[in-house]
Amino acid sequence: MTKILCIGAGYVGGPTMAMIAKKNTNVQVTVVDINQQRIDAWNSDNLPIYEPGLDEVVNEARGRNLFFSTDVEKGIAEADIIFVSVNTPTKTFGHGAGCAADLQYWEKCARQILEVATSDKIVVEKSTLPVRTAAAMERILNSGRNGAHFDVLSNPEFLAEGTAIADLDNPDRILIGGHSTPEGKKAVQALVDVYAAWVPQEKIITTNLWSSELSKLTANAFLAQRVSSINSISALCEATEADVGEVAYAIGTDSRIGPKFLKASVGFGGSCFKKDILNLVYLCESYGLHEVAEYWRQVVKMNEYQERRFVDRMLKEMFNTIAGKRIALFGFAFKADTGDTRESPAILITRELLEENAEVVITDPQALKHAEQDLADVIDRVVFEPDPYKAAEGAHAVALLTEWKEYKELDYQKIFDRMAQPAFLFDGRNHLDHQELFGIGYNVYSIGKAPLKHI
Ligand code: UDX
Ligand code: UDX
Ligand code: ADP
């Protein structure tokens, strides 16, 4: 029986391994993490991450051929294939701070594998890493004297949060990078076989290691760039009375452009986009490609501009003062269907509102726990309220920041009746029915559209 180990039981490692175990009943999959609490949660009915459909997949495989444990060493010793899926955050110190990937967790992993392994292993980079990290990993792994041989592969994960299970079940493609030496090809084939259990062969792309590593960064950079591009146009729409939804639809019908990822918003968030672009920027700089670095840096700058612009607009439209005014934020997660708040635009928006001495009330169906952690330093100045009706009570404005389905279904007349007047609604996701809200009496502001104002 093939034994797979995954080091790192996070957003990527957990769901991916659960799917691999579900689809390969003849493979034993173990997920390890140094965080005992996380592993306990994976072994309970209360999984550490919220992801639609994940419970079913875990329940089917857990205890059969899917195991969660903190025994990293035992896992390494037994495994044939080791996925490394530990966190690679942006460095906060030293050279490349704020830009380069912090590879300390990842390198510790490589060293631990080397220390413990006594048989040959295939080591798979699952975490997003700078290009040529595999080379460093190979050098570390093959510096040992215990006779074990290591093949390093790159197999980036393209799942998006909130749709992880659907993305894993039916991926656009699986990308596997490896060396074209005979051992390299054998290792690639072993991993292809794991995915071929449910992914059609033509969707399994094999490339060299560096192309695979770079494709992950490039894919996220392109996706983020589309969001920044349409957001830049949304600012122009607000100035000209063009409608960004109409513009997005019109350009998206061009098959060369395509309709996806053209939804103007309050800004993109999530653990990947900003981090990966800054990583790309750092990589370009380190190769002396300053113009290329600048080109991609602008995508992040545009996103920050979009977040700030949202607050600026609130301030301006609410008579240039929001001091002492209660403002209800509907949604704190960086997108719907996830409890994740990493890099969520809501974080910066809350802080900017607090700078203006507004009274901020936050509601979200899944993300309140994380919101409390993100705002730990200002926690006594923010109210967290699971019930959106209560959150909006007495508020001067509601700002919708996450496109939760629940928020479409609220009784906005009831909310309006309990708000301070004149009532403002800022829709940061163009998620609600603006004409209906305007009919109720709200002053409605959306992204990239003319406002609907009574006053
Ligand atoms: C363009 C638009 O495609 C068309 O919709 C609009 O009406 C007019 O402008 P055109 O300039 O005729 O049309 O040619 P296009 O095929 O878009 O190519 C423009 C340039 O981009 C060419 O120099 C082409 O070689 C280059 N190009 C295009 C690339 O370098 N790479 C590509 O992948 C595509
Ligand atoms: C992303 C990539 O999509 C995924 O392939 C990669 O593996 C990890 O990074 P994720 O961050 O989970 O996934 O979510 P995604 O759906 O890409 O959304 C990212 C951010 O962009 C969200 O804040 C979302 O609200 C925003 N967004 C997305 C828009 O504002 N407009 C859009 O049209 C699409
Ligand atoms: P991602 O979104 O990439 O999955 P997460 O931060 O959600 O990232 O998950 C990474 C996980 O890796 C965390 O649970 C962390 O505890 C774990 N981790 C980090 N370093 C190690 C290590 N050396 N051994 C085992 N687990 C690790």
What does this protein structure show overall?
By secondary structure, the chain is α/β, with parallel strands linked by helices. The protein folds into 2 domains: 2-207, NAD(P)-binding Rossmann-like Domain (Rossmann fold, 3-Layer(aba) Sandwich), CATH 3.40.50; 208-455, NAD(P)-binding Rossmann-like Domain (Rossmann fold, 3-Layer(aba) Sandwich). The protein is built from 17 helices and 14 strands. The protein has helices at residues 13-23, 36-42, 54-61, 72-78, 104-116, 133-141, 164-169, 182-195, 209-240, 244-252, 273-286, 290-317, 345-355, 368-374, 388-392, 412-417, 434-440, and strands spanning 2-7, 27-32, 66-69, 81-84, 121-125, 150-154, 174-177, 204-207, 326-330, 359-363, 382-384, 397-400, 424-427, 443-446. The strands form 3 sheets. It has a 6-stranded parallel beta sheet with strand order 3-2-1-4-5-6, with helices on both faces. Helix 1 links the parallel strand 1 (2-7) and strand 2 (27-32). The chain is elongated. The mean pLDDT is 96. Bound molecules: uridine-5'-diphosphate-xylopyranose (UDX) (2 copies) and adenosine-5'-diphosphate. Residues 7-13, 32-35, 38, 72, 85-87, 105, 108-109, 127, 271 line the site of adenosine-5'-diphosphate. InterPro entries: 6-PGluconate_DH-like_C_sf, NAD(P)-bd_dom_sf, UDP-Glc/GDP-Man, UDP-Glc/GDP-Man_DH_C, UDP-Glc/GDP-Man_DH_C_sf, UDP-Glc/GDP-Man_DH_dimer, UDP-Glc/GDP-Man_DH_N, UDPglc_DH_euk. Catalyzes the conversion of UDP-glucose into UDP-glucuronate, one of the precursors of teichuronic acid. This is UDP-glucose 6-dehydrogenase. Substrate binds at residues 157-161, 216-220, 256, 263-269, 334-335, 429. Pathway: Nucleotide-sugar biosynthesis; UDP-alpha-D-glucuronate biosynthesis; UDP-alpha-D-glucuronate from UDP-alpha-D-glucose: step 1/1.
